[in-house]
Inverse folding.
């Protein structure tokens, strides 16, 4: 039987308020909801119940009396909030962040002055140093401060990346990266800046490149001031981006860290003479690994490429929980900035949504949409994935049929032409189309324009695409990967896991890149184990320690001096 949706019977107005409060908090903090422990303080019990169901739908955990709390959602009076903060901060481990969220529906539920002087931690987040260095205030009823405040955003990201910090510190202490030049070609925002700085602190020479639509210029300027060469500009044309990427490659990096494998492929196309001097590369996306595996099958891959994307601590978390939360939230946030006649096209709690593709990203997108109360239909040509979606409680249909009455269509395939011209023509008038995948022409915009479609900008990163022989759709940011091109990327804690895996790949390449096959190679399983244990500790959880009877695998491995017993005793002892 399909799982019941706890928000399905919620008052749409209450659900819209709760959704807006949760998305505001995620936007200004760039932090994760899944796995975080929360407590709701005061307020109307009906409002609290809807907020509770929404948070648990995203994977957050209600905090009981025996556990700590990461987020206090304050709905009642300021007095109730002060008492709750005092209780939550008592005996709290240092370095453990507590978010106090004023989510009062009608009036403020937190008196910020009650905690003493505040300081801006990052736009939209206030620190209260007189109470604790680890307590921060967020008001869902106040717009964040203007200005990029890049230094503050980088500091904020660094404090919430304990796993990457620990791995980088181990590399620093071992001196492994001294003399190694590492090219970082990733979405250039605060979390990537932290990765670059950690690599620099560990002894590496770091150089960075980013595509124009993935460049935060303020963050790039901060890195330049620290001595890291950055070849990137948000205003660069396509030809200028090529020149910038080649300029980064001309610094002769030994290792490349890539997202989408564009720079890895570029070095093969334009600078093949550099390949013999390189130890290898690491690629962190599904769509980036596909062409590299084709190159390897043809004997065209000249360096080993570590498949960071296939690390369990990347795919199971970044793709599902991180991309699921950040892409859906980014899409709805962009629509919220439009006038109410357009905003009503995607009504939270009453709308219908289609997810194209049910891999790990599609799973996460569907999960978040369902938590928000959408009726979700999944379309995937792979019959096994379609069956998975059906067992998860979603409707399943061919894409051209599913979009006919959809309010929102999100492509999560990472495959060009997923939202084809035929799909665009089949959409209901006013359907919002967004991409959570991230390859060129995942929405077949070139085909649509060639067929006579007219593009009209109607808001920030929102355009109307009017088909001459069909309806118009609202396309978000030209079909770019919306959490990157329209927001600040995946939550910090998620990228902490992914970047820890990247650091593990760097270790592999520096220690034995010369020994690895010139192919797409799997990441060492130990990288996953180390990353997961550090992350569990950061989330306040432990598992069996290494050396326990269970050890790192279950069941316990056979003693080295005893061969595994493979004989069946179901029919008595063997002769």
């Amino acid at each position: 039987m399909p799982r019941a949706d706890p928000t399905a019977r919620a008052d749409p107005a209450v659900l819209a308020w709760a959704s807006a409060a949760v998305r505001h908090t995620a936007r200004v903090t760039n932090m994760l909801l899944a796995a975080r422990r929360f407590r709701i303080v005061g307020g109307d019990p009906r409002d609290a119940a809807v907020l509770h169901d929404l948070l648990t739908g995203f994977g957050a955990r209600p905090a009981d009396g025996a556990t700590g709390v990461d987020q206090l959602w304050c709905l009642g009076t300021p007095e109730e909030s002060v008492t709750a903060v005092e209780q939550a901060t008592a005996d709290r481990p240092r370095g453990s962040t507590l978010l106090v969220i004023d989510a009062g529906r009608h009036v403020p539920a937190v008196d910020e002055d009650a905690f003493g002087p505040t300081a801006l931690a990052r736009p939209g987040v206030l620190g209260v140093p007189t109470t604790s260095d680890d307590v921060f205030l967020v008001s869902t009823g106040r717009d964040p401060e203007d200005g990029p405040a890049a230094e503050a955003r980088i500091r904020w990201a660094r404090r919430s990346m304990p796993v990457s910090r620990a791995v980088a510190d181990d590399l620093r202490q071992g001196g492994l990266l001294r003399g190694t030049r590492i090219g970082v070609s990733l979405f250039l925002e605060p979390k990537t800046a932290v990765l670059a700085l950690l690599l620099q602190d560990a002894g590496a020479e770091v150089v960075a490149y980013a595509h124009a639509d993935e460049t935060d210029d303020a963050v790039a300027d901060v890195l330049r001031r620290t001595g890291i060469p950055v070849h990137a500009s948000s205003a660069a044309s396509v030809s200028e981006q090529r020149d910038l990427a080649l300029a980064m490659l001309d610094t002769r990096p030994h290792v490349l860290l890539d997202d989408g494998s564009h720079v890895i492929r570029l070095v093969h196309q334009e600078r093949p003479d550099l390949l013999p001097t390189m130890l290898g590369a690491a690629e962190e996306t599904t769509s980036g690994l596909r062409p590299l595996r084709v190159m390897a099958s043809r004997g065209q891959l000249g360096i080993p490429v570590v498949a960071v994307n296939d690390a369990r601590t990347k795919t199971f978390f970044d793709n599902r929980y991180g991309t699921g939360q950040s892409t859906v939230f980014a899409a709805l946030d962009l629509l919220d900035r439009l006038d109410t006649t357009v905003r009503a096209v995607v009504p939270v709690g009453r709308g219908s949504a289609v997810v194209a593709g049910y891999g790990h990203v599609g799973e996460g997108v569907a999960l978040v949409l369902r938590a928000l109360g959408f009726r979700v239909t999944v379309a995937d040509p792979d019959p096994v994935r379609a069956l998975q979606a059906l067992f998860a409680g979603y409707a399943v249909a061919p894409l051209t049929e599913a979009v006919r009455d959809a309010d929102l269509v999100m492509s999560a395939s990472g495959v060009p032409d997923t939202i084809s011209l035929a799909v665009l023509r089949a959409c209901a008038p006013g359907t919002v189309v967004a991409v959570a995948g991230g390859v060129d022409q995942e929405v077949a915009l070139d085909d649509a324009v060639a067929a006579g479609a007219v593009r009209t900008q109607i808001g920030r990163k929102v355009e109307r695409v009017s088909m001459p022989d069909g309806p118009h759709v609202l396309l978000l940011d030209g079909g770019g990967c919306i959490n990157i091109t329209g927001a600040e990327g995946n939550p910090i804690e998620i990228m902490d896991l992914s970047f820890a895996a990247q650091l593990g790949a760097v270790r592999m390449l520096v220690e034995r890149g010369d020994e690895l096959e010139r192919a797409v190679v799997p990441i060492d399983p130990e990288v996953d184990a180390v990353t997961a244990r550090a992350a569990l500790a950061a989330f306040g959880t432990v598992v069996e320690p290494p050396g326990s009877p269970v050890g790192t695998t279950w069941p316990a491995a056979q003693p080295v001096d005893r061969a595994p017993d493979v004989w069946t005793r179901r029919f008595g002892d063997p002769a």
The first strand starts at residue 37 and ends at 41. The CA atoms of residues 224 and 230 lie 6 Å apart. The two ends are 48 Å apart (CA to CA). DSSP finds 20 helices and 22 strands in the chain.
